[in-house]
Amino acid sequence: MSTKPRVLVVEDEPTIAEAIAARLVAEGFDVQQVHDGLLALDRAAAWDPQLVVLDVMLPGLDGHEVCRRLQASRPVPVLMLTARDDETDLLVGLGIGADDYMTKPFSMRELVARIRALLRRVERAAAAGAGAANHAPPTVDVNGLRIDGAQRRVWSRDDEVHLTPTEFDLLACLAARPGTVLTREALLAEVWGWADASGTRTVDSHVKSLRRKLGADLLRTVHGVGYALEVGR
């Protein structure tokens, strides 16, 4: 079996799908591509990709429904592609389990960088889980939140809240320094593993998704700078 990272490309425009696949193959990935939502679910079940690049506008099932079903059956990192630069549409994608998104047209170089960063985060999470018995990260309690670093689980008061891997890493990063303002660039470097000013909107969208799940007043915006996890609400 190939040791190359397996990436499933789900895109209904053949020209775009071929371009993405060709670039990823050149970068050392094992790639398969499909062009509609139902086939995407079948291929994912049969091939077990390590990451899915998923277009929102698909025949059969749209990307949001495909993402929802993927996360329900076997969670896998998802990078969504959208031609719609609509914030509500993007937040829906993040809210149902997508880890990142890019708006068309996009740079192939940036796409590859984001895919590599997503895969690194998954590897770090797996390593943390494997070493949890001997080096369990502390449980953080702040502002009614309980964040279990070993199990990568979060509770708000007594209710468990489902977070995507990216949302968990972002929250854990902010919770490690409660009350401290972290710049968008610092969050990109620490959570996403890459530093590019063009990606700061990705941070903003994930913060908004966290607010929807945890409460609007938990994360404080410092305009022009970044974000902080509130303390002593």
Give the number of helices.
Answer: 9
Helix content: 40-55%
Task: Write down the Rg.
Answer: 18 Å
What composes the largest sheet? 5 strands, parallel
Structural class: alpha/beta
Which whole number gives the mean pLDDT? Answer: 86
| Span between termini | 52 Å
Task: Name the descriptors.
12 strands, 233 residues, five-stranded parallel β-sheet, alpha/beta, four-stranded antiparallel β-sheet
Describe this structure in words.
The chain is an alpha/beta fold. The protein contains nine helices and twelve strands.
Care to give the gist of this entry?
By secondary structure, this protein is an alpha/beta fold.
Describe the secondary structure blueprint for this structure:
Elements: E1 6-10, H1 14-26, E2 30-34, H2 37-47, E3 51-55, H3 63-73, E4 78-82, H4 87-95, E5 100-103, H5 108-130, H6 132-135, E6 139-142, E7 145-148, E8 153-156, E9 159-161, H7 165-175, E10 182-183, H8 184-192, H9 200-214, E11 219-222, E12 226-229
Parallel strand pairs: 1-2, 1-3, 3-4, 4-5
Antiparallel strand pairs: 6-7, 7-8, 8-9, 10-12, 11-12
Helix pairs in contact: 2-3, 4-9, 7-8, 7-9
